[in-house]
């Protein structure tokens, strides 16, 4: 087999149908585009309908196939409607990437507040968005995969799940729960529905996005004190860029990872491996 053909057989996603939650965000959008470049037909899930269509249109511009599917990941009925619509259109669901998530200032310890000041409602919001916003899509779209006895789910964790990062208490707890959920689902689904159904996760390091940019970089692009501390602890010496997540995600979704399930892959420039000294 020619080398190019062999690589395509291991990493190509031709004929697959992929769903990406949070695809209206920076990281989710990059992952969605990467899956489309690998040959998948991609559904763009997110709460912002206009933005979902923009992401889908950008994929179609380079020759990919994409459809906007605006939905709130915390709305089970809405997710079920999307599942039925996509099954009617494509006949299958092969890949689910759970990139929806985030944090809020109200659930973050600041210089002027402490852990004891955080409002339960704010903590619930972050826990729900990240944990339930991953679990519910796994439940709804995973049902279609279970019927097929094949599919790949990739959840998005964080370095906050592995390291005690200051300030982000609810976000950290939710991401740690996602890693546990990933392992639990990998075992449950493989034992019940066969080895063709796999569940893995990626754990990004520090990437600049819509929510954290002001915390990590100044208006002139230089790092803030917190941003500098992160870069100093990252052997690669920089923040991640969205495309850094694409190849790992494509691999986990494709034939080359057919014997990989229940793992969490760090994409962090060495942050997790470094002691800082």
How would you summarize this macromolecular structure in one to three sentences?
This protein is an alpha/beta fold and about 280 residues long. It has 2 domains: about 5-205 and about 240-265, Rossmann fold; about 215-240, no CATH class.
Which helices and strands occur, and which strands form pairs?
Blueprint: H1 3-11, E1 17-21, H2 26-37, E2 41-46, H3 49-61, E3 65-70, H4 76-90, E4 95-98, H5 120-148, E5 151-156, H6 169-193, E6 197-204, H7 213-216, H8 225-233, H9 246-253, E7 264-267
Parallel strand pairs: 1-2, 1-4, 2-3, 4-5, 5-6, 6-7
Helix pairs in contact: 2-9, 4-5, 5-6
For the record, what is the CATH homologous superfamily label of the largest domain? Answer: NAD(P)-binding Rossmann-like Domain
Structural class by helix and strand composition? alpha/beta
Return the CATH architecture of the largest domain: 3-Layer(aba) Sandwich
Overall helicity: 40-55%
**Helix count from the secondary structure assignment:** 9
Radius of gyration from CA coordinates:
18 Å
Major β-sheet annotation: 7 strands, parallel
- The overall pLDDT, averaged over residues, is 95
Which percent range describes the beta-strand content? 5-15%
Specify the overall morphology. globular
What is the total tally of β strands?
A: 7
Kindly report the CATH topology of the largest domain.
Rossmann fold
Distance between the termini: 46 Å
Helix-strand pattern? HEHEHEHEHEHEHHHE
Give the neighbour order of strands across the main sheet: 3-2-1-4-5-6-7
Q: Spans with pLDDT under 50 lasting ≥5 residues? A: none
Q: Identify the CATH class of the largest domain.
A: Alpha Beta
């Amino acid at each position: 087999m020619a080398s190019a053909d062999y690589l395509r057989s291991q990493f190509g996603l031709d004929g697959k149908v992929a769903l990406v939650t949070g695809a209206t965000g920076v990281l989710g959008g990059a992952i969605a585009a990467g899956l489309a470049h690998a040959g998948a037909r991609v559904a763009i899930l997110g709460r912002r309908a206009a933005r979902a269509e923009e992401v889908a249109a950008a994929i179609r511009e380079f020759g990919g196939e994409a459809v906007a599917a605006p939905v709130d990941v915390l709305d089970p009925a809405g997710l079920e409607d999307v599942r039925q619509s996509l099954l009617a259109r494509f006949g299958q669901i092969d890949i689910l990437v759970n990139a929806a998530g985030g944090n809020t200032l109200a659930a973050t310890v600041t210089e002027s507040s402490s852990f004891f000041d955080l409002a339960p409602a704010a903590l619930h919001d972050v826990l729900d968005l990240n944990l339930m916003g991953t679990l519910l899509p796994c439940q709804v779209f995973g049902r279609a995969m279970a019927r097929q006895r094949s599919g790949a789910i990739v959840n998005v964790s964080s370095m906050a799940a592995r390291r005690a990062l200051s300030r982000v208490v609810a976000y950290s707890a939710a991401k740690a729960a996602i890693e546990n959920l990933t392992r639990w689902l990998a075992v449950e689904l493989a034992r019940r529905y066969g080895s063709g159904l796999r569940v893995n996760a990626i754990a990004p390091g520090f990437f600049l996005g819509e929510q954290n940019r002001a915390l990590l970089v100044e208006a002139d692009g230089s790092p803030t004190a917190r941003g500098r501390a992160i870069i100093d602890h990252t052997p690669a010496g920089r923040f991640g860029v969205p495309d850094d997540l694409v190849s790992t995600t494509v691999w986990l979704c494709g034939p080359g990872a057919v014997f990989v399930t229940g793992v969490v892959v760090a994409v962090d420039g060495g942050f997790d491996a470094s002691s800082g000294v």
